[in-house]
């Protein structure tokens, strides 16, 4: 590709509102442009990276036995009503109406569509298991789109779904997907960890997130330095939640003054609070304290709250009890918790809360977060202990360390969550109707691009790992006005193009501009026809190490290999 013919608008200045390295560099190097908040165009260079990532994904999904399909982004509300998520998903789901007033959603995820597709076609156990995937734009009206394409409102996801007639079969596919995910992120060059994620009501090891280790990550993971153990901490100290409540909802405090309230009042309170505020209530349930938290923009309905307290004698705690308990940090489901005294941004706390976690501290104080997507009656009150950095870890090997992570992938055993509500069933060997058992597996494709950019850069720009670099080589004519340089660069470009994907900077720009752009764009190898062009000598520069080498143009392909 000739640079004079393509579209790589580079910027010298760091864009003012780009806080993190990957966002700054992807803008500066002309990979992405913002259209509006959380919505981006992928310019030609980014599109090439995306295609390379997608090809890796396609190969590994194929190895895992999954077939690619493409489902509609626009989805009729009826499907979402069947699963119940039309009511529970909240404002993250983009909704629209057609000219007849019929309601639709823009796909935030595709469980509903795929479940309806498969239930209509597959009736027998003989046709299971089945694994399908697509690569497509997803729409989520994120409350806080940020960091460029790391958290967009329109973003590219690979989403896979599997259907089974037994849990053993689901386990097998889950294992295959786990392996495929590990291979995908390895091949993209990422430094990542697979972590045990919060599985809420589902329990156990039924869900893993793939976390790219990075300071800018929004998740916190606890891992052992002596084994492969790692888990998402999903922690939320109550104090952070409370300070946010006080700041953003000054009149909430008053309304919330603990008093004896009925479940109905609590439910109505939870469902009416304004957007942007955290609602929290402290209950005494069976002599234990239960803190119910929810975010104002999640729809919480009466039934869920009722379910939670069904068969328990719940009453609100007194002001004194509340004060005592608010001093304690709270942990999360699983063998990890929040270390004493750790300050976590309210935002992070909110995330943990809406993800639906429950936990307790050593004294046995419990909290439950209200997650609209889950049926709270299933939430178990797990007994947890708090851990600190340096503590021994849960599997007896090494000590606990904390790190920040960017979630690039998430795999989940869904069980019959969708098949029961949506009536996706098959006939087993004995002719009995059974709900299909499902798994789902997501990768943020555009987020993966940003995560690689975040891990691979230096003071001069991006430094792509070869496997997903937009081009293999950058050929530059230092001075296009020099016939010798232009001709040699052209010859090198033509010759190498047979074997490699080459970007040729044939622009009539100053050499300094070309070199700066080249470093910014970050292709692994640069080949320059410069001062020694008349002798047929070019300079090779390795982007990552800065190593330089002069070679005769005829020997070039041998050297590059
Ligand atoms: P997050 O916790 O970051 O909001 P999520 O848990 O809501 O992500 P999933 O529903 O698990 O996301 O979706 C699968 C994958 O899609 C995620 O692992 C992530 O890589 C990607 N993804 C989710 N939301 C976004 C977004 N707003 N922008 C870019 N990628 C995203
Ligand atoms: Mg999310
Ligand atoms: Mg997540
Ligand atoms: Mg996730």
Automatic annotation (TrEMBL):
Catalytic activity, EC: 6.1.1.15
Subcellular localization: Cytoplasm
Domain Aminoacyl-transfer RNA synthetases class-II family profile: 47-465
GO MF: aminoacyl-tRNA deacylase activity; ATP binding; catalytic activity, acting on a protein; proline-tRNA ligase activity; transferase activity
Keywords for the protein's UniProt record, in alphabetical order: Aminoacyl-tRNA synthetase, ATP-binding, Cytoplasm, Ligase, Nucleotide-binding, Protein biosynthesis
GO biological process per UniProt: prolyl-tRNA aminoacylation
Major place of residence: cytoplasm
InterPro entries recorded: aa-tRNA-synt_IIb, aa-tRNA-synth_II, aa-tRNA-synth_II/BPL/LPL, Anticodon-bd, Anticodon-bd_dom_sf, Pro-tRNA-ligase_IIa, Pro-tRNA-synth_IIa_bac-type, Pro-tRNA-Synthase_IIa_type1
Catalytic reaction(s) noted: tRNA(Pro) + L-proline + ATP = L-prolyl-tRNA(Pro) + AMP + diphosphate
Cellular component, GO annotation: cytosol
Source taxon at top rank: Bacteria
Record text about domains: Consists of three domains: the N-terminal catalytic domain, the editing domain and the C-terminal anticodon-binding domain.
Family statement drawn from the similarity comment of this UniProt entry: Belongs to the class-II aminoacyl-tRNA synthetase family. ProS type 1 subfamily.
Known partners and oligomeric status: Homodimer.
Record's function text: Catalyzes the attachment of proline to tRNA(Pro) in a two-step reaction: proline is first activated by ATP to form Pro-AMP and then transferred to the acceptor end of tRNA(Pro). As ProRS can inadvertently accommodate and process non-cognate amino acids such as alanine and cysteine, to avoid such errors it has two additional distinct editing activities against alanine. One activity is designated as 'pretransfer' editing and involves the tRNA(Pro)-independent hydrolysis of activated Ala-AMP.
Protein name: Proline--tRNA ligase
Source organism of this protein record: Metabacillus mangrovi
């Amino acid at each position: 590709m000739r640079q004079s013919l393509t579209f790589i608008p580079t910027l010298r200045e760091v864009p003012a509102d780009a806080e993190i390295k990957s966002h700054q560099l992807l803008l500066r190097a002309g990979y992405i442009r913002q259209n509006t908040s959380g919505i981006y165009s992928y310019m030609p260079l980014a599109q090439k990276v995306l295609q390379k990532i997608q090809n890796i994904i396609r190969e590994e999904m194929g190895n895992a036995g999954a077939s690619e399909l493409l489902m509609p982004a626009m989805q009729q509300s009826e499907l979402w009503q069947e699963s119940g998520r039309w009511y529970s998903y909240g404002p993250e789901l983009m909704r629209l109406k057609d000219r007849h007033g019929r309601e639709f959603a823009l796909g935030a995820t595709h469980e509903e569509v795929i479940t309806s597709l498969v239930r209509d076609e597959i009736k027998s156990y003989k046709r299971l298991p089945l694994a399908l995937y697509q690569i497509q734009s997803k729409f989520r009206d994120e409350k806080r789109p940020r960091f460029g394409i790391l958290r967009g409102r329109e973003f590219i996801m690979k989403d896979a779904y599997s259907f089974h007639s037994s849990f053993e079969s689901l386990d097998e596919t889950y294992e295959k997907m786990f392996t495929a995910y590990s291979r995908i992120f390895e091949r993209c060059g990422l430094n990542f960890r697979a972590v045990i994620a919060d599985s809420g009501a589902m329990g156990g090891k039924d869900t893993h997130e793939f976390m790219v280790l990075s300071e800018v990550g929004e998740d916190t993971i606890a891992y052992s330095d002596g084994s492969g153990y790692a888990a998402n901490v999903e922690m939320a100290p109550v104090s952070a939640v409370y300070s946010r409540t006080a700041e953003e909802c000054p009149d909430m405090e008053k309304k919330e003054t603990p008093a004896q309230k009925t479940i109905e009042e609590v439910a109505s309170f939870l469902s009416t609070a304004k957007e942007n505020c955290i609602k929290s209530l402290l209950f005494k349930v069976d002599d234990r304290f239960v803190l119910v938290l929810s975010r104002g923009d999640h729809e919480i309905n009466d039934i869920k709250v009722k379910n939670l307290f069904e068969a328990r004698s719940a009453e609100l705690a007194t002001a004194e009890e509340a004060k005592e308990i608010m001093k304690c940090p709270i942990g999360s489901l699983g063998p990890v918790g929040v270390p004493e005294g750790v300050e976590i941004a309210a935002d992070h706390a909110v995330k943990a809360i809406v993800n639906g976690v429950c936990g307790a501290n050593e004294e046995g104080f419990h909290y439950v977060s209200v997650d609209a997507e889950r049926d709270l009656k299933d939430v178990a009150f797990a007994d947890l202990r708090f851990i600190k950095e340096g503590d021994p870890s849960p599997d007896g090997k090494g000590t606990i360390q904390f790190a920040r992570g960017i979630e690039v992938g998430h795999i989940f055993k869904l069980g019959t969550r969708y098949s029961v509500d949506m009536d996706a069933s098959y006939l087993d060997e004995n002719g009995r109707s059974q709900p299909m058992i499902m798994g789902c597996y997501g990768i943020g494709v555009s987020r993966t691009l940003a995560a690689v950019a975040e891990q691979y850069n230096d003071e001069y720009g991006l430094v792509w790992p070869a496997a997903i670099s937009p081009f293999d080589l950058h050929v530059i004519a230092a001075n296009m006005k020099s016939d010798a340089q232009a001709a040699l660069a052209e010859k090198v470009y033509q010759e190498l193009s047979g074997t490699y994907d080459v970007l040729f900077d044939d622009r009539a720009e100053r050499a300094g501009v070309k070199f700066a752009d080249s470093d910014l764009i970050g292709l692994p190898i640069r080949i320059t026809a410069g001062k020694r062009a008349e002798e047929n000598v070019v300079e090779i520069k390795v982007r990552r190490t800065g190593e330089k080498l002069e070679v005769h143009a005829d020997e070039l392909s041998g050297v590059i290999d």
